[in-house]
Write a sequence for this structure.
């Protein structure tokens, strides 16, 4: 009695071997590293590897190893000094097709790596970093698409002079007509040329028609705005140089951005949330600014703009070029050590610039910085969105001679501003304003603290339980302790294999599992004790103990599992981590506490004719 | 079966359930009154707002920080030490211009060379959503468990376990309200874990009650339940003890961030242990459970007959 078949034991040993193997990678520390990835569609090649390693060698940088992976090149270092100096070095030597980012790379021996062994990935609260939740201003998207349809509608109806007037009203376009006949014709044109515009029910007055953008076109506009914003954000994050960033859609109008290891969060915030662009306009030299301000009337073809310090200037409404025309931008300092941004325009922008500068030598050209912002503010206890648009003149300089697609912008406040502007112009603009609605930043020092404290509390909690179980259940307690240890190893190996992110609440989940996992063994052992009192036969007591406790254990664990599944589905990051480790812990504990402990008890007591159990 | 002869302690839990009911009633009334009158001290996860944790090299000058904030017109800033006197926690209620930029400007204002340990900003809308989702999660967990227990046992058991759970959750919340400990997202997670834990305990007792109803010829429900409680007592205490041991480790060593999480679990586990002994079984007894209710279906009957 109480024997497991050899194959069953072998299977258990095999499972335990596997979980130990895949938990192993976590024992090796990690190396300081630099990760080089291609931006956009560019994927790093072997030739990049060679050029990088020769650059490092030429500059006598001491590095441990260099390796190319599927989409990145990883250079490992022995100390942080050479890591940091290499980053500066590589950043300046590599073109902008590469992202150079500091990283920590697990130093797993090759044989283990070849078997697919990976270390657990640590959450932001353990390694430090920023988590942002951005919300795209969808009302702005709808309103922009309405503007576009306004123009298209006008063009479509203009051909035969069908309309009298078109105006924008809330979320619709209202067209008025001179006759019923023209209105009918217009309806036909709209139906065939602009199928995305639908007539609002009940809006049809005698000579008027209300149109709105169909819901399918609206949602298409929304989802394309979201996708475009994600692409732009990815470009911006690449410019920031972050290893392993996460940029993901969440729901229909939100984007999660996680930047591990980023320390300058203020800059990250400025860069991610900015919906900024520039416009180049000619200064209206014919009309006087003061007259325009005093009379409150701006001459036609001109508009009043301000510098940041409040000075005003009349600018022509015709735009020479916009941010969309910019193909490259970089920041530097000029001869007088003032910050500047060098701009490269695309061909069409370059052409207009050339024509304009040729014609208007001696005139001034202004650079206007445009920023859209959206903020949620609380008014009378209700959260409302507040939109604002700032348009500041950065500078206005006299055109000294003709130029086309290459020139500099000066007049910036600081080199930080120049750097940010260059980055934003390079990475492209967001198609709709975004707002940061949640931020969670963990500094590197707190992250390190969290790891250490989490580790110590797992260790202490675990040790306390081990001592307590051994004292209370003697040989059986030791068996339970082995099972518990194996449980811990199995949890770690599963977390490593599925690459679940380990967070501090996740560690708390592991700690809690340690406390609760022994429950199954306690149930079994107490049952065996009871059976011993009545039966006095150790073999019967053992098997009855296991059998009778089994259903209870299953019932109890399934209900806990239900609670943790709810936690998981509800979960925002932190809670999810807790739910994941708790669920995994419950499942693995069933295996170790029931099957593995039984196998061990069988090996110790199976078939023996003892009268007493050390329990 | 005589428990004494089997070396199992015999405590008359069922006989003393009146005292337990009075005790529970007092705890519940105090908890509900506290929640009703002074409410919970919700953290920024739910209210929205900004939280900044800063590390100074020397003892931080709280007054200095406060006056700096006040002079810069940051209204309602709560500045306090966090864990030690070199660490400072600044909390700001949602401002009229509540935005993620607020924290940057505060950090810039307080000067260079401070270690920014943590920044959390939760927009008003997100806070509202989390509150709703949190309440829903609690509800879903309870419903899921109700269905499972009703399916595995009998409806009275399901109601008994829910009574115990509601009891535990209200008292844990009551302690948080009484002591005005901050209630954040991790505490909510802890309370959901308490639901799981307390239920775990209750189910073990219920399992034994059902088994005893079927196995003995005794018909008096009170003594059957009492016997089951005594039989599972040492297991209940053992498991609670091991769980409490690790929770103490978390509470004292896990750091400030999960301090209230561990605290909530500590309270919950103690209350949960008590409720699985007194509240859950008293409820099914009060609802008039009897041996007939336990009579198995045809299939189960055969299994029982087959037992030696």
């Amino acid at each position: 009695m109480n024997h497991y078949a050899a194959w069953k034991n072998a299977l258990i040993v095999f499972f335990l071997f596997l979980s130990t193997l895949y938990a192993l990678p976590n024992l090796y520390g990690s190396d300081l590293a630099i990760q080089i990835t291609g931006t956009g569609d560019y994927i790093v090649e072997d030739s990049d590897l060679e050029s990088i390693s020769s650059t490092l060698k030429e500059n006598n940088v001491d590095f441990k190893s260099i390796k190319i992976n599927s989409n990145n090149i990883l250079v490992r270092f022995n100390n942080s000094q050479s890591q940091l100096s290499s980053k500066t070095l590589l950043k300046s030597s590599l073109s902008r097709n590469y992202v150079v980012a500091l990283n920590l790379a697990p130093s797993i021996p090759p044989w283990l790596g070849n078997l697919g062994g990976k270390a657990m990935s640590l959450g932001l609260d353990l390694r430090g970093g920023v988590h942002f939740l951005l919300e795209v201003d969808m009302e702005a998207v709808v309103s922009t698409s309405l503007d576009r349809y306004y123009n298209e509608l006008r063009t479509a109806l203009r051909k035969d002079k069908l309309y009298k007037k078109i105006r924008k009203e809330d979320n619709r376009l209202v067209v008025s007509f001179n006759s019923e006949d023209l209105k009918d014709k217009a309806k036909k044109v709209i139906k065939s040329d602009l199928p995305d515009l639908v007539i609002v029910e009940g809006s049809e007055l005698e000579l008027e028609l209300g149109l709105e953008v169909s819901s399918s076109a609206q949602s298409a506009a929304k989802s394309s705005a979201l996708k475009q914003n994600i692409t732009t954000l990815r470009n911006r994050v690449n410019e920031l140089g972050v290893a392993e960033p996460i940029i993901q859609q969440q729901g229909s109008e939100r984007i999660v951005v996680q930047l591990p290891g980023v320390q300058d969060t203020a800059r990250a915030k400025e860069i991610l949330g900015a919906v900024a662009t520039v416009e180049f306009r000619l200064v209206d030299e014919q009309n006087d600014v003061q007259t325009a301000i005093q009379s409150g009337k701006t001459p036609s073809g001109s508009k009043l703009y301000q510098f940041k310090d409040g000075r005003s200037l009349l600018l022509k409404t015709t735009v020479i070029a916009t941010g969309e025309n910019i193909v490259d931008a970089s920041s530097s300092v000029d001869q007088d050590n003032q910050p500047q941004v060098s701009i490269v325009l695309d061909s069409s922008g370059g052409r207009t610039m050339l024509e304009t500068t040729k014609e208007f030598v001696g005139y001034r050209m202004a650079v206007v910085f445009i920023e859209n912002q959206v903020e949620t503010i609380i008014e009378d206890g209700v959260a409302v969105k507040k939109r604002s648009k700032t348009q500041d003149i950065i500078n206005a300089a006299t055109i000294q001679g003709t130029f086309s697609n290459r020139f500099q912008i000066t007049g910036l406040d600081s080199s930080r501003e120049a750097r940010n502007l260059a980055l934003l112009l390079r990475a492209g603009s967001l198609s709709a304003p975004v707002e940061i609605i949640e931020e969670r930043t963990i500094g590197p020092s707190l992250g390190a603290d969290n790891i250490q404290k989490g580790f110590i509390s797992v260790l202490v909690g675990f040790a306390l339980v081990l001592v307590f179980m051994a004292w209370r259940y003697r040989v059986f307690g030791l068996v339970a302790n082995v099972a518990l240890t194996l449980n811990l190893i199995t949890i770690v190996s599963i977390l490593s294999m599925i690459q679940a992110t380990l967070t501090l609440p996740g560690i708390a989940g592991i700690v809690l599992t340690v406390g609760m996992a022994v429950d199954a063994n306690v149930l079994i052992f107490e049952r065996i004790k009871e059976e011993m009192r009545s039966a006095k036969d150790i073999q019967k007591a053992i098997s009855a103990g296991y059998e009778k406790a089994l259903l209870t254990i299953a019932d109890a664990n399934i209900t806990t599992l239900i609670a943790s599944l709810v936690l998981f589905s509800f979960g925002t990051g932190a809670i999810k981590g807790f739910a994941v480790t708790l669920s995994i812990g419950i499942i693995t504990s069933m295996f170790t506490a029931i099957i593995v402990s039984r196998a061990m008890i069988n090996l110790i007591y199976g078939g023996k004719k003892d009268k007493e159990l050390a329990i | 079966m005589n428990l004494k002869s089997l070396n199992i302690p015999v405590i008359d839990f069922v006989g003393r359930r009146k005292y337990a009911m009075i005790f529970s009633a007092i705890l519940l009334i105090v908890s509900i009154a506290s929640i009703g009158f002074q409410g919970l001290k919700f953290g920024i996860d739910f209210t929205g707002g900004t939280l900044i944790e800063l590390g100074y090299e020397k003892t931080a000058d709280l007054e200095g920080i406060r006056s700096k904030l006040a002079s810069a017109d940051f209204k309602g800033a709560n500045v306090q030490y966090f864990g030690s006197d070199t660490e400072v926690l600044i909390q700001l209620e949602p401002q009229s211009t509540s935005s993620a930029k607020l924290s940057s400007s505060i950090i810039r204002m307080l000067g260079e060379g401070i270690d920014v340990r943590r920044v959390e900003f939760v927009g008003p809308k997100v806070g509202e959503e989390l509150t709703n989702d949190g309440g829903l999660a609690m509800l879903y967990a309870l419903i899921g468990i109700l269905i499972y227990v009703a399916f595995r046992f009998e409806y009275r058991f399901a109601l008994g376990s829910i009574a115990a759970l509601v009891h535990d959750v209200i008292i844990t919340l009551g302690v948080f309200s009484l002591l005005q400990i901050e209630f954040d997202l991790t505490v909510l997670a802890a309370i959901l874990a308490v639901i799981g834990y307390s239920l775990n305990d209750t189910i073990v007792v219920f399992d034994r009650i059902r088994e005893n109803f079927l196995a003995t010829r005794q018909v008096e429900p009170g003594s059957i339940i009492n016997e089951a409680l005594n039989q599972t007592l040492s297991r209940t205490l053992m498991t609670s003890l091991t769980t409490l041991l690790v929770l103490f480790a978390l509470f004292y060593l896990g750091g400030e961030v999960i301090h209230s999480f561990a605290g909530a679990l500590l309270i919950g586990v103690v209350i949960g242990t008590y409720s699985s002994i007194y509240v859950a079984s008293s409820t099914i007894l009060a609802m008039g459970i009897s041996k007939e209710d336990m009579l198995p279906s045809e299939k189960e009957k055969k299994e029982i007959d087959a037992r030696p």
User: Anything to note?
Assistant: Residues 221-253 of chain B form the longest helix (33 residues). The domain at 49-122 of chain B is CATH 3.30.70.3400 (Alpha-Beta Plaits). The mean pLDDT of chain B is 84. Chain B touches chain A through 83 residues (CB under 8 Å).
